[in-house]
């Protein structure tokens, strides 16, 4: 529900503009405080990068330059506010593609400088996990979160707002990256996650017993063994001139990824006595992952929360939410803020 400008101003709440350009989505959002989203505009470049089978960094940067002004204008107009109403600006400064990050960052810096309002640099991963605050208004730390995206796979203890303890991460490929690579190997295209999910619905997820890397029940993840196993399976079939049932390969692969992610998250929550697990990042859009984690959550009396799909994949509302909590924690950045492509949480 979008409030009118006067209603917002009368409440004297903090209004912020958030900007996200770390990969192939140019996005801008307007928020009131951290959890109320007045607009969330996303211009995706998927169609442009599809023909290359993945994101081409230079093309992404050029597209961000073309789109950013339009996206910001749309975010303001949908929120029914003007630049003068802004109290601060949040912007992603990493991790991501450096050229892509620099577009949003430079834009945000110029805007903050000209308006004379504070600038808050936001970690994209913190943005992803914050998407749950927008959807679940009562959600408060502490809780455990599983962040699964194209670039990251992390199990994190959220001790408080802006206070994290990383339990584990991926030792090789991120979960989304694995979806994208297997999709390419099966000739299904980019981005792999949604395509594999769709085709898996017609397949048997027990057809092929692909390996699950539990790494002795620790909190780290590894998907490269699974990836090699799927690629070997495909190559063997091709060499023997045998038919590959793509639906079965996709479903069995997806099940192996989902099994590891869901079981590890539940195991960590039990060991650390968390009663809530939140799921976030592009792979959190996966229907089977949501289903499996929810099933295991029910069995173990752990509450499972995830954002709507639009807040799972890259967007600026999540950046605005993380930016707000950083802002009220006193974080301020200046004109020297640079893009940090390998920024950690
Ligand atoms: O969070 P995100 O939009 O960008 C990064 O920060 O990386 O995540 C993109 C990733 C891609 O690898 C994409 O294949 C995956 O999320 N993804 C999915 C689904 N939708 C997007 N993976 C599995 N199932 C989905 N439904
Ligand atoms: Zn992301």
Radius of gyration: 20 Å
Overall shape: it is globular
How would you characterize the largest beta sheet?
5 strands, mixed
Mean pLDDT over all positions:
95
**What structural class should be given to the helix and strand makeup?**
alpha/beta
CATH architect. name of the largest domain: 2-Layer Sandwich
Strand content: 15-25%
CATH fold name of the largest domain, please? Nucleotidyltransferase, domain 5
Give the strand tally: 10
What does this structure look like?
By secondary structure, this protein is of the alpha/beta class. The chain has two domains: 5-130 and 313-328, Nucleotidyltransferase, domain 5; 141-310, ATPase, nucleotide binding domain (Nucleotidyltransferase, domain 5, 2-Layer Sandwich). 45% of the residues lie in helices and 19% in strands. The chain has helices spanning 5-11, 46-50, 57-79, 98-115, 124-135, 175-185, 192-200, 224-239, 246-271, 287-299, 309-312, 317-328, and strands at residues 15-20, 25-32, 36-44, 88-94, 119-123, 143-148, 153-160, 163-169, 276-280, 303-305. The strands form two sheets. The chain has a five-stranded mixed β-sheet, sandwiched between helices. Strands 8-7-6-9-10 form a five-stranded mixed β-sheet, sandwiched between helices. α3 (57-79) packs parallel to α4, α6 packs across α7 and α7 packs across α9. The longest helix has 26 residues, at 246-271. The radius of gyration is 20 Å and the shape is globular. It starts with a helix and ends in a 17-residue tail after the last helix. The relative contact order is 0.18.
């Amino acid at each position: 529900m979008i409030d009118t400008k006067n209603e917002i101003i009368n409440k004297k709440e903090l209004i912020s503009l958030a900007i996200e350009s770390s990969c192939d989505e140019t996005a801008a959002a307007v928020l009131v405080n951290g959890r109320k989203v007045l607009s969330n505009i996303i211009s995706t470049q998927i169609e442009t990068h599809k023909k290359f089978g993945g994101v081409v960094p230079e093309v992404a940067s050029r597209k961000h330059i073309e789109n950013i002004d339009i996206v910001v204008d749309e975010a303001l107009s949908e929120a029914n506010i003007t630049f003068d109403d802004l109290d601060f600006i949040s912007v992603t400064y990493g991790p991501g593609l450096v050229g892509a990050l620099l577009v949003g960052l430079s834009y945000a810096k110029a805007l903050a400088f000209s308006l004379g309002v504070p600038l808050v640099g936001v970690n994209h991963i913190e943005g992803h996990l914050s998407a749950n605050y927008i959807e679940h208004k009562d959600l408060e730390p502490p809780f455990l979160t599983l962040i699964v995206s194209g670039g990251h796979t992390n199990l994190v203890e959220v001790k408080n707002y802006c206070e994290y303890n990383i339990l584990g991460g991926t030792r090789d490929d991120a979960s989304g990256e694995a979806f994208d690579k297997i999709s390419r190997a099966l000739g299904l295209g980019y981005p792999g996650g949604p395509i594999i999910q769709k085709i898996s619905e017609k397949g048997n997820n027990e057809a092929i017993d692909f390996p699950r890397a539990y790494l002795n029940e620790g909190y780290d993840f590894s998907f490269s063994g699974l990836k090699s196993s799927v690629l070997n399976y495909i190559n063997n079939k091709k060499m023997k001139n045998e038919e590959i049932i793509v639906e079965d390969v996709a479903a069995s692969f997806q099940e192996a990824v989902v099994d590891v992610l869901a079981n590890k998250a539940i195991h960590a929550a039990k060991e650390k006595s968390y009663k809530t697990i939140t799921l976030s990042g592009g792979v959190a859009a996966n229907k089977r992952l949501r289903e499996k984690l929810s099933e295991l959550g029910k069995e173990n009396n752990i509450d499972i929360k995830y954002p709507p799909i639009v807040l799972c994949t890259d967007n600026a509302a999540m950046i605005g939410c993380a930016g707000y909590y950083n802002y009220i924690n006193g974080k301020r950045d200046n004109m020297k803020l640079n893009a940090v492509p390998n920024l950690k949480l």
